[in-house]
Amino acid sequence: MSKDNWDIIRAKYVASAVRADQYPQPSLIEAAFIGRSNVGKSSLINSLCRRNGLARVSSTPGKTQTINFYELEAKRVVEGEDERASFYLVDLPGYGFAKTNHNNKDQWSGFISKYLSGSENLGVVCQLIDIRHKPLDSDMECFNWLRSCGLKVQVVLTKSDKLSKNAAMSQKALFKREMGLKEHEIITYSSSQHTMRGELIERIMDALSANGVEQE
Questions:
Q1: What are phi and psi of 177, to 5 degrees?
Q2: What is the distance between the alpha carbons of residues 125 and 142, in angstroms, rounded to a whole number?
Q3: Which uninterrupted H or E stretch holds 205?
Q4: Which are the contacts of 105, defined by CB distance < 8 A and separation ≥ 6?
Q5: Measuring CA to CA, how many Å separate 101 from each of 6, 41, 42, 142?
Q6: Given a cut of 70, is residue 200 above it in pLDDT?
Q7: Quick check: 100 pLDDT over 80?
Q8: Does the reported pTM lie above 0.85?
Q9: How far is CA 75 from CA 7, 51, 163, 175, in A?
Q10: Residues 26-45: what's their mean pLDDT?
Q11: Neighbours of 88 (CB within 10 A)
Q12: Using CA atoms, how far apart are residues 184 and 90, in angstroms rounded to an integer?
């Protein structure tokens, strides 16, 4: 069976929320994005969707203070037939935790932790981390907290274009070792060069397909 890879062909802003009753309807399977306040999350979302300005890029880190929902449509061709799928990309506020007990599950403000631990539609969480640094305590806290909630986590190392190819590979190996990740659980990404865009879309769609993404 021949098939083309998935691509994002449409993206639009749908809603912002701080409470469950503000989440958009009808519900769709969701892929959430989270990272430290200066990790380049908005730029990555714009790159992934090929829509400059879809997610607002701010010069002030931590500007996002609500849970923002975007409806995305993905498409691929299977044996000459179009196959489409819709899902929500969920942009979560950035974190910058102080050191806390690893068992403390109140490290985010209430509405974010409630979304992550309570969403019935959440298929995967993409945790964005700056590739130029070693894993920070806040990154590890976030990762361990997400895993403790039973969530599927895809680690995305951003700003890979800021390093040489060899340095980026070394940093990826460091994160794999420190976080106990398998190869398919971590990926490098450059928002300015869109490197690994197709692979990240494939990984997201694989995760969502395993959790019931609606296909047309």
A1: -70, -50
A2: 11
A3: helix 197-210
A4: 113, 117, 145, 148
A5: 40, 26, 29, 12
A6: yes
A7: no
A8: yes
A9: 5, 16, 32, 32
A10: 93
A11: 24
A12: 21
